[in-house]
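Incident review: delayed structure delivery

Summary: a single-chain prediction request sat in the queue longer than the usual turnaround. Root cause was a stuck worker, restarted by the on-call engineer. No data loss occurred. The affected request and its eventual output are reproduced below so the record is complete for anyone auditing the incident later.

Affected input:
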Amino acid sequence: MMNWKILISIPVILSACSRNNMYEEAAESGAAYDYVENANGNFVTEGDVKVGTFKNAGYSGDQNAEQLPTQQKLIRTGELSIRVDDYARDVQVVKEAIKKFNGYIGDEVESREAYRLGNSLNIRIPEKNFDAFVDDMVKGHGFLNIDRKQIHVQDVGEEYADLEARIIAKKAVEQQYLEILKQAKTVQDILDVREKLRVVREEIESHEGRVRYLANQIQYSTIQLEIYQLLEYGTIEKPGFWNKVKNSLSNGWQGLVNFIIGIISMWPGILIVIGIIWLFRRWRKRRRAARS
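Output delivered after worker restart:
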């Protein structure tokens, strides 16, 4: 009776081992495709995710279905260069417009040169307000001149969909490894499976981070805006005689302070020199006394 039960169980055990071997080999096959087992006991790949095989990690669907077109996800960026005749006033006008359209300044670099005042602003604007903000800058305030206007649109819909599909597949692989971990018997098997889990989880975190970055870039458009004013020669302030005298006195006093500080900072060396001179004079005095 016992031999009959053993004979019946052998095909089941061999089938289970075969599935685990197929899974482990497929999981190690590379980053391009991860194989997971669906509810019917068949193995499918990340590529099947794109044609609707996976639904809420249930892995149901027609593997031969046609892939649907990806939804457009647009990242819009712009560059504006604006010349103005009143720099201080118009910079405030731009900053008020940014607030008006619910944007914010990511970076700001202000420069002051001999014949030019300028400010470079990295502006983040909600995507729905992008066109209105650009039109407001170009037409709404009567700036002196628009030197450059450049708009760039990038469709990342395919990359976004691919990342989402990979995340679903990687999480399915993670679940499979967790099931294998429960069945591991030896310490080495546990360590091996945990290492594979670590790699899969790092890949999931990487994909999710990229998805978050793309979502932020889609939601908020980026505009690099440069606003500047050209100065005439007569508007450059030149130092007068008394200003030169004042600067000279200030520089001289600063030089004296630096000299005193330098002397003070050399006190260990000064003490050593004084000690050497004292020892030399003492030795010389004793030598003269010995001769006399």
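Verification: The chain has eight helices and seven strands.
Action items: add queue-age alerting; document worker restart procedure.
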